[in-house]
Amino acid sequence: MIVLVMGAAGCGKSAIASLLAERLDSAFLDADRLHDAASKAKMAAGVALDEDDRRPWLEAIHAVLQQHSAAAQTLVVACSALRRSHRQVLGRNIDELRVVFLDGDPELLARRIRQRHEHFFPAALLADQLAILEPPTGEQALRLDIGEPPPALVEQIVDWLALATRPPAAPNRQDIGQ
Ligand SMILES: Nc1ncnc2c1ncn2[C@@H]1O[C@H](COP(=O)(O)OP(=O)(O)OP(=O)(O)O)[C@@H](O)[C@H]1O
Ligand SMILES: O=C(O)[C@H](O)[C@@H](O)[C@H](O)[C@H](O)CO
């Protein structure tokens, strides 16, 4: 199973996804690690990525997801995946993709970005992220409010995953042989 933890900058993708991976005893990928140097420099200079920048990055993330999916290994990935088309690239040929959308007030997102140190992403780019964000609809997704503390968010994700992966109920006796 692949669990994608997504949302705009500062929503807590890295924090929540890494805690979740620990809780599930699974692999963890922070998609920001796969940005090339040019993309990181671009964002650090206050310029938002465009779709040409994102395409090879999304493909590189997808390759990691596919390896884990093919090996039937659980992987939790923290990735902004703002547009539906981004999630379509990530989910290509992946049997079990679960999407967790960390949603929250823009003011809180901005505050969390500003509080952070040693990160390439400037708060000034948040407006661009929110402008292109397409919240998941009709995808297998759980929406959570980032106002809650990380452990509470992680427990809600664990409960939701358990429900989503529970096998279908066995047929009752009447169904058998009919
Ligand atoms: N639910 C939460 N409650 C309080 N603080 C949080 C919560 N989630 C994350 N944080 C803190 O907010 C800041 C931003 O979180 P984090 O870096 O995980 O966000 P992100 O979505 O990965 O951001 P980016 O996409 O820019 O890398 C961090 O300092 C983190 O510790
Ligand atoms: O698609 C994008 O615009 C980028 O991936 C950003 O989302 C950053 O990587 C991230 O949010 C900062 O960590």
From TrEMBL:
<keyword id="KW-0418">Kinase</keyword>
<dbReference type="GO" id="GO:0005524">
    <property type="term" value="F:ATP binding"/>
</dbReference>
<dbReference type="Pfam" id="PF01202">
    <property type="entry name" value="SKI"/>
</dbReference>
<keyword id="KW-0067">ATP-binding</keyword>
<keyword id="KW-0547">Nucleotide-binding</keyword>
<dbReference type="InterPro" id="IPR031322">
    <property type="entry name" value="Shikimate/glucono_kinase"/>
</dbReference>
<keyword id="KW-0808">Transferase</keyword>
<dbReference type="GO" id="GO:0005737">
    <property type="term" value="C:cytoplasm"/>
</dbReference>
<dbReference type="GO" id="GO:0046316">
    <property type="term" value="F:gluconokinase activity"/>
</dbReference>
<dbReference type="InterPro" id="IPR027417">
    <property type="entry name" value="P-loop_NTPase"/>
</dbReference>
<dbReference type="InterPro" id="IPR006001">
    <property type="entry name" value="Therm_gnt_kin"/>
</dbReference>
<comment type="similarity">
    <text>Belongs to the gluconokinase GntK/GntV family.</text>
</comment>
<protein>
    <recommendedName>
        <fullName>Gluconokinase</fullName>
        <ecNumber>2.7.1.12</ecNumber>
    </recommendedName>
</protein>
<comment type="pathway">
    <text>Carbohydrate acid metabolism.</text>
</comment>
<dbReference type="GO" id="GO:0005975">
    <property type="term" value="P:carbohydrate metabolic process"/>
</dbReference>
